[in-house]
Design a protein that fits this description.
The protein has two domains: about 190 residues, no CATH class; about 210 residues, Histidine kinase-like ATPase, C-terminal domain (Heat Shock Protein 90, 2-Layer Sandwich), CATH 3.30.565. The protein is built from eleven helices and five strands, in the order H-H-H-H-H-H-H-H-H-E-H-E-E-H-E-E. A five-stranded mixed beta sheet has the order 1-2-3-5-4. By secondary structure, the protein is α+β, with helices and mostly antiparallel strands. Its EC number is 2.7.13.3. It comes from Streptomyces echinatus. It catalyses: ATP + protein L-histidine = ADP + protein N-phospho-L-histidine. One of its GO terms (cellular component) is membrane. Keywords: ATP-binding, Kinase, Membrane, Nucleotide-binding, Phosphoprotein, Transferase, Transmembrane, Transmembrane helix, Two-component regulatory system.
Length: about 425
């Protein structure tokens, strides 16, 4: 099919034609109301059969349609119809009812335009095809004797008989072109008249930003919690396998650490996934903090065979809950990176000075680079995101043969 044929008879053109027919159907009650209003003033009993009076009734009914479009459901219903039938991007249309005066005015203009063009195309769709078919099949009857069949005598001319089928086909093409043009016009004006206002766009942008913030937060929680647990469990199981015959006591300690790590991680995973389930309340597992689980985090890391020294120069119980929680995740990620990529021993220092919490994690540089996992490498960026949200600072890099992670968090964050 050529481009012009698709534009006239393609799937999109047909759906827009249906949309116009729906507009014509919606216009019928208003045309009837206009006829009722017009009848007494004209004193004519043929208001329903006279084309000029029907057109006048149509003109009277459209302003009434504009008034009724002020009902709240009009804009969402029209937006849904445009989205389904006109091929307009859903993000370019408003979803809720019109609230401001400008939104109501645009909705009224759209409803009037839809019903006006729909009424015209619907009337043409009823009248033109039958007339066009009559013109296309007329020549055989004219050749058989049009006058005897009651046809006009002018049809006896041979050139008239030859041109009537052409005129019929031209009328059908004109109808299709008119419907396609009106449908394209409605599709073009829909975002302007039914589109969201600046306030709606701002609210949608804020909602998207909030949704992205929640998703990023959940992604960080899953990465830090599950990533640390899997790394620790892998090393614990590996160390237990190597020492199974020579150090049963260490093996029992490693297996207990694996059990504890997986149990805690399942609880944290349930808490995170509970946020994702529509209608579900968040899981009951509390978010880990320095005050609640720093000792357990160090113990589970050591159970993997990693030598970890820790110096805590401040009481974790005095830290603000948000700082304590984010600091726990930062220490956890630092230990995870050391487990996966670095040598030992690992040194952890936590202290406070000048209204800031200082976290330092150091370990020797690895003699050989660890293989990079597909999709990995988000740990430091996750730490940077956490620190930025709290208004702190973070630095990670090699210094004097050591890999050092240093984070400063303001203690004024609640």
């Amino acid at each position: 099919m050529t481009a012009s044929t698709v534009s006239l008879f393609g799937r999109r053109a047909r759906r827009r034609w249906v949309h116009l027919i729906l507009g014509g159907a919606l216009a019928m009650p208003y045309v009837f109301l206009g006829s009722v209003i017009l009848g007494p003033f004209t004193g004519s009993a043929g208001v329903f059969t006279s084309l000029p009076l029907q057109l006048a009734s149509f003109a009277i009914g459209l302003p009434v349609a504009a008034v009724t479009s002020l009902f709240p459901p009009t804009r969402p219903l029209e937006s849904g119809a445009v989205r389904a039938l006109c091929g307009t991007d859903g993000d370019a249309l408003a979803h809720g009812p019109a609230r401001t005066r400008g939104e109501r005015a645009r909705t009224a203009a759209w409803f009037t335009l839809h019903l006006g063009l729909g009424g015209i195309v619907s009337g043409m769709s009823l009248a033109v095809p039958s007339l066009a078919v009559f013109l296309i099949v007329l020549p055989p009857f004219a050749w058989l004797g049009g006058t005897r069949l009651g046809l006009p005598g002018a049809l006896d001319a041979w050139w008239v008989r030859a041109l009537t089928p052409v005129a019929g086909v031209a009328m059908l093409l004109a109808l299709a072109a008119c419907a396609a043009g009106c449908g394209a016009l409605l599709a073009r004006w829909a975002p302007v008249l039914l589109g969201p206002s600046p306030r709606d766009r701002l609210a949608a942008a804020e909602a998207r930003a909030a949704d992205l913030a929640v998703r990023n937060r959940l992604a960080r929680e899953l990465h830090d919690s599950v990533g640390h647990a899997l790394s620790a469990v892998t090393l614990q199981a590996s160390a237990a396998r190597r020492l199974l015959d020579t150090d049963p006591g260490f093996v029992r300690e490693a297996l207990a650490a694996i059990e504890d790590t997986t149990r805690r991680t399942v609880g944290e995973l349930d808490a995170v996934l509970g946020v994702l389930r529509d209608g579900d309340a968040p899981g009951t597992a509390p978010a880990p903090t320095l005050a609640a689980d720093l000792d357990g985090l160090l113990r589970r890391t050591r159970a993997a065979g990693q030598r970890v020294t820790a110096v805590v120069g401040t009481d974790p119980a005095t830290l603000p809950p948000l700082v304590s929680r984010e600091a726990y995740r930062i220490v956890q990620e630092g230990l995870t990176n050391a487990l996966k990529h670095a040598g030992e021993p690992v040194s952890v220092r936590i202290g406070s000075a000048g209204g800031r919490l200082e976290i330092t994690v150091e370990n020797p540089l690895a003699t050989a680079p660890a293989p990079r996992r597909p999709g990995g490498g988000h740990g430091l960026s996750g730490i940077a995101d956490r620190v930025r949200l709290l208004g702190g600072s973070a630095h990670a890099g090699a210094a004097g043969g050591l890999w050092r992670l240093r984070v400063l968090l303001p203690l004024g964050t609640t």
